[in-house]
Design brief:
alpha+beta, 3 domains, Pathogenesis-related Protein p14a
Length: 357
């Protein structure tokens, strides 16, 4: 009888090997629910704690973990969508920036059109630039807005999706994201979410505007700090010109000492020599390039404007703006520096390029 009972027991163990091992601990659903909620939290430390909790759970809890990860990723993506749909300064800025860009693209060809100094056409250009200046001022104001909290919330949600995607990979080694490094994964997450991609574009547009503002401020500081050789008239002219260059999306020009020396020398020569021309009768100063070289300008001179009749920087600027060829030089894309020279009512403006500027 004992032999028969023992035989039956051995057969039962053979048919049900799980009975040979200690029964796996049950899943604590209260812990699952708590950890699942923390996976949806914006605080990375809480998500990390939730991940650690799931990792200590028995194997059969991994199904709950997969479900929790999927649900948490959706929550974080929904947060990005909510940010994108909210009234925010990034979106408001982008609307104005887009109108400014479209205006620039439309007006720049007009600025570079030869109207043969026709008064009505020049007035039309002035009106166009003034209208664009209004958009530029609005964009500048918006670009100075504090969007720190908004960007932090957006990036926190993107980071959360990346973090939880890495956890999904551990449960499913076949996921194609496993081959991506962290930067590539972040790019994938952004591109796969229309809202995240849109917000990223808004943020890039915002930073581009801020850079334009910073670049202008840097140039203005450079121009303002050179009191030893740069007088008030030179600075005022550069300020007026640079203001309209940046409105049109062109880089502002730094006043360069040696190029300004060449310009001032030509203005003085015209005033004392009784001539008004780009070609000088003074030995070794025949062309603008001769004059730039003689002044030891260590860049490439590219253009020259001359004006006579007023000591006012605004008059010089207005005269050149109304003269097509001179306007083309003031609104050229290539230069990053300029020379300004004044002698009484004689003005010379030169453009150039310098490495490292």
């Amino acid at each position: 009888m004992k032999k028969i009972t023992l035989l039956r027991l051995l057969l039962l163990l053979a048919l049900h090997p799980s009975l040979q091992a200690e029964e796996e601990a049950p899943v604590n659903m209260q812990h699952v629910r708590a950890a699942s909620a923390w996976l949806q939290n914006a605080d990375p430390s809480k998500r990390k704690a939730a991940i650690s909790t799931f990792r200590t759970m028995p194997g059969k809890a991994m199904t709950h973990y997969q479900t929790a990860l999927k649900a948490a990723i959706k929550v974080h993506l929904d947060r990005i969508e909510q940010i994108d749909k909210s009234d925010n300064k990034l979106a408001e800025h982008d609307d104005i920036a887009r109108q400014l860009t479209e205006g620039r693209e439309r007006v720049m060809p007009l600025i570079r059109t030869d109207y043969h100094k026709e008064g009505k056409k020049i007035k039309m250009l002035r009106d166009e630039i003034e209208a664009l200046t209004e958009f530029y001022d609005k964009r500048e104001k918006l670009a100075k807005s504090d969007v720190t909290a908004l960007l932090a919330a957006m990036n926190a949600s993107i980071d959360a999706v990346c973090q939880l995607t890495r956890e999904q990979e551990k449960l499913d080694p076949q996921m194609d994201t496993k081959e991506l490094d962290d930067e590539e994964l972040r790019e994938r997450v952004i591109k796969d979410s229309l809202e995240a991609d849109h917000l990223q574009q808004l943020a890039e547009s915002f930073e581009k505007s801020r850079k334009e503002i910073t670049d202008l401020a840097t140039v203005e500081k450079h121009n303002a700090d050179n009191d030893k050789w740069c007088n008030a008239s030179m600075k005022t002219f550069a300020t007026v010109l640079n203001r309209e260059r940046v409105v049109m999306g062109l880089r502002p020009l730094r006043i360069e000492e040696r190029l300004s020396a060449a310009a001032e020398g030509h203005s003085s020569d015209m005033a004392s020599g009784g001539f008004f021309a780009h070609e000088s009768p003074v030995p070794n100063k025949k062309t603008p390039w001769d004059r730039a070289k003689l002044a030891e300008f260590d860049g490439n001179a590219s253009g020259e404007n001359i004006f006579m009749g007023s000591t006012d920087p605004n008059s010089a600027y207005g005269g050149w703006f109304g003269s097509d060829g001179h306007r083309f030089i003031m609104f050229s894309e290539g230069p990053n520096c300029c020379g300004v020279g004044v002698s009484g009512v004689h003005w010379t403006f030169m453009t150039g390029s310098k490495n490292g500027w």
